[in-house]
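Re: the request from the purification team.
They wanted to know what the chain is likely to look like in 3D before they choose a buffer screen. I agreed to run a prediction and write the result into the notebook, where they can find it.
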Amino acid sequence: MTPCYTRVVAHNEECTGMPGMRLTGHVIGLLKEYMRDLVEQARQETQNQQSFGFTAAPYRPDQAISDLLAILDDRIESEGLQVGLPDGFLHQMWKLCEEARVDIEQTVWLQSNLSETVSSKARTRELTYRALIAYIEKQLEE
């Protein structure tokens, strides 16, 4: 079976000379799995805090992105080649997230204010990662 490759290219590729990131369906699947893990972790953390009577501190999309990059760094260090993450993946994801930051923040803000759901760490992560995946998919269409 031949893997399906997708290319995500930064808008300023011509200026930097940096090659785009090639993503397989497998890599995107791993990325989504890590995102789901982080959302679930936040849900459990919130439940634990509530059981002890603590109120969670406000949580922002840039923190969700930082948490994603941290887990990517950890997973690449511990299992990178074994799970099929390409060399330079963390750096390319960092660049992509930085490029997408404003779009993600606007999307999360809008969706948070339109929703009747109470904002939480898990909800912010969920909305942030959904916006990041949408941004990646938009880049693939261009």
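For the purification team: The radius of gyration is 16 Å.
Please add any questions underneath this entry.
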